[in-house]
Amino acid sequence: MFPVELDNVTVAYHKKPVLQEISLQVPEGKLIGIIGPNGAGKSTLIKTILGLVPRASGDISIYGKDYKDQRTRIGYVPQRGSVDWDFPTSALDVVLMGRYGRIGLLKRPKKTDVEMAKAALEKVGMLDYAKRQISQLSGGQQQRVFLARALCQDADIYFMDEPFAGVDAATERAIMTLLAELKEKGKTVLVVHHDLQTAEDYFDWILLLHLRKIAFGPAENVFTIENLQKTYGGKLTFLKDKVLAEGQKG
């Protein structure tokens, strides 16, 4: 049984397909990069799996069941730009939100929940900012807080939408350390990513996406010049054996 399985999934906005006939069987315990040009449907794919975007056709299962039956097994880090950072709440409160799936929205967190939240903040280097309003944090600090919230969900599968976007080098290293730890624990992590230079180094498996699945498998098999040309369809340049693509971010 696969952590995530898609069977012929199509998604359309205003009758225009944005994902077409996607079929995937995501292996367990892997770091998986979702890569493609702007408008390729990367974020839409994650949101469709999470039930945030309706699909026109096809089936999606999480460990063989519907998403709504497996919510407690899923952690999600959205794009930073989609979050209202002016909402008056502290970093600790944001992280505690990761526990609500298990304790219930109307129940108060227990001491063990608070301790777990603080431990998650410490793991991402943000414990000293626990009482700080999230609007007062830098972009990298905000991203670390959202990663801590995902950790608090104690999930089996993590979806991260561009976690490296707009963060400093220290935060990027902290994120990769965290992803490596999750993998060591047998977790499955799917990450929307736009930097082709780091893709092979960061991920075990790669999904190349451009409205359709171009290729999916171990990074060393999938991350080829031929597949990248099929994915980006534009000018590719070569720099120190790494491939860069114009308009790759999105």
Explain what the structure shows:
By secondary structure, the protein is an alpha/beta fold. It is 32% helix and 27% strand.
Q: Which features characterize this protein?
A:
single chain; about 250 residues; alpha/beta; six-stranded mixed β-sheet; three-stranded antiparallel β-sheet; 9 helices; globular
Write the layout of secondary structure elements.
Layout: E1 4-13, E2 16-26, E3 31-35, H1 42-49, E4 57-62, E5 74-77, H2 91-96, H3 100-103, H4 111-123, H5 139-152, E6 157-161, H6 169-184, E7 188-192, H7 196-202, E8 205-210, E9 212-218, H8 219-222, H9 225-232, E10 236-239, E11 242-245
Q: What is the arithmetic mean of pLDDT? A: 87
Tertiary shape: globular
> β content, as a range?
25-35%
**Total strand segments:** 11
Q: What pattern of helices and strands is seen along the backbone?
A: EEEHEEHHHHEHEHEEHHEE
Cα-based radius of gyration, to the nearest Å: 18 Å
Oligomer: single chain
Q: Can you count the helices?
A: 9
Unreliable residue stretches: none
Structural class: alpha/beta
Separation of the first and last Cα atoms: 31 Å
The main pleated sheet reads as: 6 strands, mixed
The proportion of residues forming helix, as a percent range, comes to: 25-40%
Strand order of the largest sheet: 5-6-7-3-8-9
InterPro entries: AAA+_ATPase, ABC_transporter-like_ATP-bd, ABC_transporter-like_CS, Metal_Ion_Import_ABC, P-loop_NTPase
Family: Belongs to the ABC transporter superfamily.
Domain ABC transporter: 4-236
Protein name: Manganese ABC transporter (ATP-binding protein)
